[in-house]
Amino acid sequence: MPRLPQVRTIVSQMAPYVPGEQPAPGERVIKLNTNENPFPPSPRVLEAIHSVDGEHLRRYPSPQADAFRATAAAVHGVSADMILAGNGSDEILAIAVRTFLGPGDTLAYPDPTYSLYPVLAATCENRVVTVPWETGWELPVAALLATGARAIFFANPNAPTGTLVRPSRVRELALAFDGLLLVDEAYVDFADENCLALVHELPNVMICRTFSKGYSLAGLRFGYAIAAPALVAEMSKVKDSYNCDAIAILAAIAAIEDQAYARTTWRAVRAERSRLAGELGKRGWEVIPSQTNFVLATCPGGGAAALYRELKRQGILVRHFDKPGLADKLRITVGTAEQNDALLAALPG
Amino acid sequence: MPRLPQVRTIVSQMAPYVPGEQPAPGERVIKLNTNENPFPPSPRVLEAIHSVDGEHLRRYPSPQADAFRATAAAVHGVSADMILAGNGSDEILAIAVRTFLGPGDTLAYPDPTYSLYPVLAATCENRVVTVPWETGWELPVAALLATGARAIFFANPNAPTGTLVRPSRVRELALAFDGLLLVDEAYVDFADENCLALVHELPNVMICRTFSKGYSLAGLRFGYAIAAPALVAEMSKVKDSYNCDAIAILAAIAAIEDQAYARTTWRAVRAERSRLAGELGKRGWEVIPSQTNFVLATCPGGGAAALYRELKRQGILVRHFDKPGLADKLRITVGTAEQNDALLAALPG
Where are the domains of chain A? Predict the structure, then answer.
């Protein structure tokens, strides 16, 4: 009798993915743990979804999501062949790894940053080199260059710190680097600056964006890369033939077209972020200045893990990382004013 | 100044994907070239999509599409932990390759079969060994076993031949094989038999299904694997964390729950398939008996490529493969009665 077939050693050694806590359907919680936008998506997104008909679903979608590429190109002032659409920016990151990094090639990133990068690198049998952030969460340019990496990835603004590296500093790294510099701008809609202009000047810079945060569409799974046409063409060979579904393409177009609506939510999140950070400060928390829709803050007098559990007991989910440098902190998603008030009211002292 | 970053040699050497011809929006063609179901999806699918609200989109979806798993498990008489949901069965196939085949490991398949397998293997730097089908499109069991493969994939019913290998013959291969046997049942809803029962008996058999053909949802991108829980658990580590979007999960549940509707379309396609094959036969075509929603047929007197172009000129798209053993044939998707009549009327003689 055949046995269970053997999986790759590298896979059997991987820890299974532990998804962020999701409340059960119907459970009433204040969910400030996975950095979703607290406001609903643009009404135009729902209109687009509700207009879908059977013929649209029966046929294969556009392999490159052409209509989305054209719209996003116009919004960003780039050409359509500089846009690669994906099933969430996680898929874009995975495609980038598969396109640029073979077995044994080095991926470098500052630590801590998005926890997906090492998982993707493991699947492709890449070598991973991490470099600590410089003081003040500044990009460690020299140390990253010294890794001899073929690709450098980092989230900007960064997770879980919420900090932003200025575009001039990112440019400095890109100018001195021969490989792919992927700037993962998942949270950039809440920031003061972005690195988009660098793609016009520097062919080794790739910008990665998502609809999960800024456009309130985490459920949709839609992200995209912006990069030199030659890079997009190579990545297109590696992606699944039809990686974006017909409904998501329509919804993403409707969302990105409604910049006025999106900007309203970004402004509201930024205003609540300031207020939340200020109120936490008054209560003795040390809050890292955030350019995202969350704050990373040090619990006064320690006990972050215990407080996380106590908040959960009260129906308020936040995020605690049991890791060196993070264990004394909580990462709190900026919610609506009511949600933030509820959190503040639940804090001790 | 930095140059374009280098991509992996294996990627730069890949030919870019050439999508099947898609008519431009508004263009009126009879599209019998990419094996879509000619009937619309169940009305319940559209109801499910039209019920989506902003809260559903704002939040991350279920990482494992739990509600779909439960529904599909009930329909198929398996446990929910035997179901892995994916962004199209193409993603399921890609995840299987990444889970079971490292660089240098061998993937074997009978030739011709689904043209995606070698593309996936190339990205993972696997070795590929192909084996010709036995006479009568029978599974070459001994030759496949002799390859020393870690995994064997094949489409059943097969594309582009439309032929089915009986489950007893598949079982024979699985019993003698130590690696993963992936039976890609994309077209199985139109066939007389399927291999689902084998997963209960044989831990090395994985069944792959899709909503693109049988459920008229090619635009949705939803597929799934059915296999031993241990295999599903390992593959879950390799997939993107949130690989299925919230709308697609709802739509897939609605589709698979409406078995009565789906079966009506399958019966109609099978009836039209018989009629189309019969009419082609009367006109001198040699038609391979099909268990799918397409027929592969040899053009009487040659000239398949020229006929393909002439049909296209008349607004009828079919598929021609310019490959040894296939160049004298056309692959024709079974359309509605009206579409098939139009095709038959356009044939010479």
Answer: 9-40+260-346, 43-258
